[in-house]
């Protein structure tokens, strides 16, 4: 693949020092790995299309079916919400223009208001207009849409349907400014759960879509007829203006039940097609419908492909073939068992054919072939493990407007598609592939790089985790995720310093052991037999000689297992303690509490004693990293910066220059025998990733202009094997890596005083010039408040766990998993607090 050869070039060039701000690229996990709520094609410029993700930004389609991330540069620590894309719109008259509504949450989790971003160069550069309210790219109903649209007759006119009861907004200057359309009052007041204690499901859902009727008359240069959908199932949800947005009325005769998800115009037919579901998505739906609205004569027709007991799901994705009016495809939003269903009609919905049907239960006719050569793990970990081959959470299903054979649809796992869709109508068999190359959407929860062992171990949300044996593998999507056991999410991973082939990982599920060990560097795994099925989550450390595992669990305090024995409580550590193993001395472990007490153990983690006053004025310990090759040397990241010890934690000195540090790591340096220290924290250029090769005497901004989202959500790990190579695990943009040259620090480009002054006024200095490396000399930089990300990533993680096959031996079904139905033999009791709810005779689900 293309990206592979780029990797080869990078490695070949590794000997030449990189002086400029580092150039970051993705590790190729491939397959996307998360939910893609929307894909939009340009109506007239062939091949111009964008895919939006809920927490990992916007991607542009390339001619070879791969995708390029286009919102990294605007997603900084302060504006991490810019990776939440709630809507995307293209200008029908100018294929270079693209607009998106950004913001992650409408509740307190995202501190910032949302924005409409606009680009005139296909997303290479952006201008940003902040809105006076929040936007929820990772909120319920994010697959409805698109709620942002450009007038096909007037590039200056843009409408945005907001959430939270904020109503309809309009720009008349090409997205520079927006103002409220006061005449539009149907603001979409449906709330999923008004009493939600997590503060996530208790917001007004707002508006669902804006659809212009390009066949209508033009009034004062504007399209006169505009349809707007609102999230309600108790009154009319589809509204129309016939006077270019001046006045609005409910469309007569509409179904008035269920929530509209998609509304698309077929101009030749002068008809709207709409999909409906009884929930707002993206995980729900037990009934729904598909409708056709004839604009000329104002009639609605129910064209739902199934009825009666076959109708046990709602409808989401809707694709119209613009080359063949009357030909369309629709998808079940969530048919959790046995699989998603996709229907195609060539007669405007009068008749339909399915993409699969029963060939005498339990056999099925698959009128498709499904492969994943671009991301083999999608096949090994999911397609071959789960009856849901075609996917779930299908909110977007698109036919290229200029190519009837080219189609794409997205799921909670990946983007699927193909180039022979019209074969559905001839041989009734189409070829589907995962077509998500370049979409790297993983929420990375733990990273390790073992000197002399596996180059990269990535614990991720929703897709378990991945091993890259050597640096040469980083460009190749893995053949398999971590399996046997496969969990939805792995939350941490560690290797044994003296025996780097010994690796441990932990998961965040329940109902099965959530510790797994490997003795071949993370290629194959076994569940750890020393834990019961109730303990879960947290962080993990394995002793240097691999005989002892200390687990700071998420729900059962700190635990320890020796020689694969039963995990028992470590009474001397508080629950939630940050832990680490000495990488050389098997008897030594380190720990820190959130109240900044530092502890160490010299009896292989059996007991810990506190070291009083070790960490100065620090009030919380964020991370502990032991030197990969030197016993007794360690670094502790705190709210006031990094502390270093060379005597097994007996005493520390504080490094200057970077404060309020988060994830830290050591990696092989550019000079033989030297190690770089990497730290996310507050330095001269703001909240970014910095590196030092001289224990903080000088620091370099190695992040450059690359966005990583919130620094508190990132995991950094230096390569244990490749000089100057460093990895960043993000919350929604996969793993990015770069080659950096930190040898001895570089001369400052600005004077000491101006650097300090700039940073103390919290105005980040950013530059991509080759002189961007900056030396910091004091630690007087202002610390900024950290971003609350823990809860946000847990929403993402828990919300998409449908994908993983239930671990074998499980006696409890996970959230979203099947828990009953005809022919079902798995667990029928759900993990608390979820209950088994019957969806239909064939499928009950933990909700
Ligand atoms: C609207 O949808 C919600 C969620 O599915 C459901 O609980 C409620 O009963 C529906 N209301 C009506 C009037 O159908
Ligand atoms: C409306 O138009 C459709 C075709 O677009 C036709 O099938 C239908 O009969 C018409 N209905 C009325 C009431 O004229
Ligand atoms: C459709 O093609 C695939 C392989 O391309 C094949 O596995 C499948 O059996 C075919 N379906 C039918 C119904 O023949
Ligand atoms: C390992 O740590 C123990 C406990 O501090 C110490 O007694 C021993 O000397 C250390 N061994 C090495 C090789 O550093």
From TrEMBL:
SMART domains: fCBD
Keyword Cell membrane listed: no
PROSITE patterns in alphabetical order: CBM1_1, CBM1_2
Listed InterPro entries: CBD, CBD_sf, WD40/YVTN_repeat-like_dom_sf, Xyloglucanase_GH74
Domain CBM1: 811-847
GO CC terms, sorted: extracellular region
Species of the source: Sordaria brevicollis
Protein name: CBM1 domain-containing protein
Lineage: superkingdom: Eukaryota
Position of the signal peptide: 1-20
Family that this chain belongs to: Belongs to the glycosyl hydrolase 74 family.
Keywords per UniProt: Carbohydrate metabolism, Cellulose degradation, Glycosidase, Hydrolase, Polysaccharide degradation, Signal
One Gene Ontology term of the molecular function aspect: cellulose binding
GO biological process per UniProt: cellulose catabolic process; xyloglucan metabolic process
Pfam families for this protein: CBM_1
Stretches for region Disordered: 517-537
SUPFAM superfamilies found in the cross-reference section: Cellulose-binding domain (SSF57180), Oligoxyloglucan reducing end-specific cellobiohydrolase (SSF110296)
Polar residues composition-biased segments: 526-537
């Amino acid at each position: 693949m293309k990206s592979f050869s780029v990797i080869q070039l990078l490695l070949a060039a590794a000997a030449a020092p990189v002086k400029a701000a580092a150039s970051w690229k993705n590790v190729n996990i491939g397959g996307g790995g998360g939910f893609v709520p929307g894909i939009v094609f340009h109506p007239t410029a062939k091949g111009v299309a964008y895919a939006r993700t809920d927490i990992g930004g916007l991607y542009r389609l390339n001619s070879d079916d791969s995708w390029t991330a286009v919102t990294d540069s605007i997603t900084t620590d302060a504006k991490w919400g810019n990776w939440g894309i709630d809507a995307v719109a293209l200008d029908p008259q100018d294929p270079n223009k693209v607009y998106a509504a950004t913001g992650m949450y409408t509740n307190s989790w995202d501190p910032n208001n949302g924005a409409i971003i606009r680009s005139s160069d296909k997303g290479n550069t952006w201008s940003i207009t902040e809105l006076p309210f929040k936007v929820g790219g990772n909120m319920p109903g994010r697959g409805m849409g698109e709620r942002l649209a450009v007038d096909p007759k007037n590039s200056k006119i843009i409408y945005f349907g907001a959430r939270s009861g904020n109503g309809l907004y309009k720009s008349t200057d090409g997205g520079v400014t927006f103002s409220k359309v006061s005449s539009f009052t149907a603001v979409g007041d449906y709330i999923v759960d008004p009493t939600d204690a997590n503060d996530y499901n208790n917001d007004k859902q707002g508006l669902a879509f804006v659809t212009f009727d390009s066949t209508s008359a033009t009034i004062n240069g504007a399209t006169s007829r505009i349809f707007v959908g609102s999230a309600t199932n108790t009154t009319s949800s589809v509204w129309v203006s016939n006077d270019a947005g001046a006045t609005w009325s409910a469309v007569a005769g509409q179904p008035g039940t269920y929530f509209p998800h998609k509304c698309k115009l077929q101009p030749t037919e002068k008809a709207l097609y709409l999909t409906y579901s009884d929930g707002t998505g993206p995980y729900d739906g037990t009934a729904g419908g598909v409708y056709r609205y004839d604009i000329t004569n104002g009639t609605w027709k129910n064209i739902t492909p199934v009825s009666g007991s076959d109708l046990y799901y709602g409808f989401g994705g809707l694709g119209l073939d613009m080359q063949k009016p009357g030909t369309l495809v629709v998808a079940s939003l969530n048919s959790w068992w046995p699989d998603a269903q996709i229907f195609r009609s060539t007669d405007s919905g009068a008749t339909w054919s399915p993409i699969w049907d029963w060939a005498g239960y339990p056999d099925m006719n698959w009128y498709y072939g499904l492969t994943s050569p671009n991301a083999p793990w999608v096949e090994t970990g999911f397609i071959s493990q789960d009856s849901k081959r075609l996917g779930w959470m299908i909110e977007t299903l698109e036919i290229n407007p200029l190519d009837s054979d080219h189609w794409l649809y997205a799921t909670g796992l990946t983007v699927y598609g193909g180039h022979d869709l019209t074969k559905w109508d001839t041989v009734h068999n189409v070829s589907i592939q995962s077509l998500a190359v370049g979409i790297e959407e993983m929420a990375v929860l733990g990273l390790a790089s073992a000197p002399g062992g596996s180059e990269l171990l990535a614990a991720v949300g929703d897709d378990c985790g991945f091993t890259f044996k050597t640096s040469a593998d980083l460009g190749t999507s893995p053949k398999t995720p971590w399996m046997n056991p496969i969990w939805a999410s792995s939350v941490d991973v560690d290797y044994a310093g003296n025996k780097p082939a010994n690796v441990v990982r932990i998961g965040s599920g329940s109902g099965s052991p959530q510790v797994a060990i490997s003795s071949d560097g993370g290629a194959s795994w076994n569940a750890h037999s020393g834990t019961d099925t109730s303990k879960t989550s947290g962080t993990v450390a394995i002793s240097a000689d691999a005989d002892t595992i200390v687990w700071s669990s998420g729900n059962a305090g700190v635990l320890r297992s020796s020689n694969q024995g039963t995990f028992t409580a470590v009474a001397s550590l508080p629950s939630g303690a940050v832990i680490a193993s000495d990488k050389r001395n098997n008897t030594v472990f380190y720990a820190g509490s959130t109240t900044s007490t530092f502890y160490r153990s010299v009896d292989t983690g059996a007991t810990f004693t506190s070291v009083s006053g070790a960490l100065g004025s620090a009030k919380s310990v964020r991370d502990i990293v032991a030197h990969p090759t030197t016993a007794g040397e360690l670094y502790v990241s705190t709210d006031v910066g990094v502390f270093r010890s060379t005597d097994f934690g007996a005493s520390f000195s504080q490094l200057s220059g970077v404060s309020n540090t988060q994830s830290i790591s050591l990696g092989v340096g550019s000079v033989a025998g030297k190690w770089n220290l990497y730290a996310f924290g507050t330095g001269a250029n703001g909240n970014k990733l910095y590196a030092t090769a001289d224990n903080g005497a000088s620091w370099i901004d190695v992040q450059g202009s690359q966005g990583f989202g919130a620094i508190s959500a990132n995991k950094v790990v230096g390569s244990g094997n490749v000089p100057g190579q460093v990895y960043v695990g993000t919350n929604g943009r996969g793993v990015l890596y770069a080659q950096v040259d930190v040898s001895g620090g570089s001369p400052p480009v600005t004077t000491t005083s101006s650097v300090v002054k700039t940073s103390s006024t919290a105005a980040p200095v950013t530059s991509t010039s080759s002189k961007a490396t900056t030396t910091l000399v004091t630690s007087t930089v202002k610390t900024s408040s950290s971003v609350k990300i823990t809860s946000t990533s847990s929403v993402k993680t828990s919300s998409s766990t449908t994908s993983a096959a239930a671990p074998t031996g499980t006696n409890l079904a996970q959230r979203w998993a099947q828990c009953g139905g005809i022919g079902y033999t798995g667990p029928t009791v759900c993990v608390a607090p979820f209950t088994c709810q019957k969806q239909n005779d064939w499928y009950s689900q933990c909700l």
